[in-house]
Protein: ABC transporter ATP-binding protein
Organism: Variovorax dokdonensis
Amino acid sequence: SSPDIVLNVNGIEVIYNHVILVLKGVSLQVPEGRIVALLGGNGAGKTTTLRAISNLLKGERGEVTKGSIELRGERIENLSPADLVRRGVVQVMEGRHCFAHLTIEENLMTGAYTRSDRGEVAANLEKVYAYFPRLKTRRTSQAAYTSGGEQQMCAIGRALMANPSMVLLDEPSMGLAPQIVDEVFAIVKDLNEKERVTFLLAEQNTSMALRYADYGYILENGRVVMDGPAEGLRENEDVKEFYLGMG
Ligand code: ATP
């Protein structure tokens, strides 16, 4: 049987500053419990797609001008990012948004802001540490003095503190050594398999993303130009020629 569709993006158009058309009718679906990769080069529209889903376009002077976005059948275009967090959808932004002057643990705790049950939050923190033992070791370190990989882990861990069912993960490999990228993706896979967290993963690093994802969409210039199961995309000659080895 086919799994339920958690997220359904249907023909969205996004315009920045009233004039710059960046997404030209993007459609994609994310089934429950899967890892879906959103691939494509610099400027293809990956970040814009994630921002549209989590309603973070306004701050960038962008808006969805056509199409619809549904979470489990409910239209979400008008929900605030906080409403989405309450519905289990959390975005991890590109560039590892940790608070530099806070410790790793303080950063993680900021992710629990929508939750009031202290006992549950404490248990959640221990769970994050179980998945990211490096963060436990560094829990009292100021984020500014931790490595790029640790900051990326901290950003993901912070998202997990909201106890999400779905994480929108923007370019987790950015600026990280291949070995650390592998470590981060292995944890993502683990969270997906053991906690059933669904991921929509925007990545320029096509080969790495397709190693961990179930399904991929390739964006070019604001349009989906190809999509399919990860295994098929890995073997596809066009993908090999234009995307593998990139990132
Ligand atoms: P990257 O990997 O660089 O983040 P991307 O695939 O995520 O690339 P976007 O960041 O979504 O691409 O950018 C898509 C296009 O939208 C680019 O041409 C970019 O210059 C433009 N763009 C992004 N943000 C804005 C903004 N706030 N105002 C105007 N144009 C923008």
